[in-house]
Amino acid sequence: MDEVIKRFREGNQRAFEELFWSFFSAGRQFVKSFQVDDSCADDILQEVFIHIWNKRQSIESDHFKAYFYKALRNNTIKYITRNKHVLNLECAENKESEDVLLKITEIEFNREILRAVSLLPEKRREIILLSMSGMSEQMIADTLNISINTVKNQKTKAYASLRQELKDISSFVLLFGL
């Protein structure tokens, strides 16, 4: 992601598109947490991305996500104020900042987990996804027509890979008690 942000800061439009689509879904979900409908959420997102494009050279790579969510929050509140939407400004401003941080953290944490799982070899990824969906090791073995020991072995290797891939965010999760 750092490489994409670097190219974006240099004015690369493909990198901008990649960032847009990487953050669109999470951003939309975040805006909708303010009780804004889909159409308005899309308008707010587009406005924020235009702003980000115009300010791209001053946004530090390490702080892109923070900048994105802060701009999204500010534009959402501004939109609510301007349009006297379903919520009033007082409601939006009184929204606990802790709740907002937890929502952002949850969205980003889930995205990182899915990214890490997508890096696993195909069979391992399939076993982990089935396990995450609630299937027992025996059910996975039966479904994939493999031995239960193979399932256990592949899960162990997958979890080791995931721990390594997610080591940076695992300390963050422990710090905030998520």
> How much strand content do the residues show?
under 5%
Total helical segments:
10
Q: Taking Cα atoms only, what radius of gyration do you get, to the nearest Å?
A: 20 Å
| Shape category | elongated
Largest sheet: none
Q: If you average the pLDDT, what whole number results? A: 81
* Total beta strand runs: 0
For the termini, the CA-CA separation is 24 Å
* Low-confidence region ranges: 85-91, 174-178
**What is the percent of helical residues?**
over 70%
Classify the secondary structure makeup into a structural class: mainly alpha
Instruction: Give the helices and strands as they follow along the chain.
Output: HHHHHHHHHH
Keywords:
about 180 residues; mainly alpha
Structure description:
This protein is an all-alpha fold. The chain has helices at 2-9, 13-32, 38-54, 64-83, 89-94, 97-118, 122-132, 137-144, 148-165, 167-176. The protein is 79% helix and 0% strand. The longest helix is centred in the middle third of the chain and has 22 residues, at 97-118. It starts with a helix and ends with a helix.
